[in-house]
Amino acid sequence: MNENSFRTSLTEEEIEKNFKDIDFFDSMKEGLEEALAYEKGKASAETFSRKRSLPTVNTEELRKSLGMTQKGFADVLGVSPRTVEAWECGRSTPTPTAKKLMFLIGIDHSLVQKLKH
Q1: CA distance 7 to 48
Q2: Per-residue pLDDT tens over the stretch 26-75
Q3: Cα separations in angstroms, 68 against 16, 37, 113
Q4: Which of 99, 13, 105 is nearest to 63 (CA)?
Q5: CA 83 to CA 79: how far, in whole Å?
Q6: How many CB atoms lie within 10 A of CB 18?
């Protein structure tokens, strides 16, 4: 049997940092409980399939690590600077799509150049 592998530019420490806030056991347990609820008719397939685990992203920390202003970061994400400001001060939280995009940018900073207008 061949061992699966993948290539990444991340160091082992960076990979560990990306997954430090994820509790895989709890995620698996929650998924199994949801599957059981679905099987018993206590959850719909639509509700069951829409729920996804989202990465944890610190908007301000990511933006600063990129050396960007709130306006510049907002332009890359396609949101207003006020939205970025609200995320950073905790008045609101990023949408699931924004969280995923920021997570990917955190893994590969070169995406910023690809996303700039």
Answers
A1: 32
A2: 777 777 887 788 788 877 666 555 555 677 889 999 999 999 999 999 99
A3: 25, 45, 12
A4: 105
A5: 6
A6: 15
Question: Does residue 7 sit in helix, strand or coil?
Answer: coil
Does residue 84 surpass a pLDDT of 70?
yes
Q: What is the CATH number of domain 55-117?
A: 1.10.260.40
How many residues does the structure list for the chain? 117
The answer to whether 58 and 20 have CB atoms below 8 angstroms apart is no
Amino acid in position 38: Y
Joined tokens for residue 91: 């008045």
Q: Give pTM, 2 decimals.
A: 0.56
The SS3 assignment for 4 reads coil
d(CA 14, CA 17): 5
Tell whether the torsion through CA atoms of 12, 13, 14 and 19 is positive or negative.
positive
pLDDT band per the 50, 70, 90 thresholds, residue 12: confident
Answer yes or no: are the C-beta atoms of 76 and 116 closer than 8 Å: yes
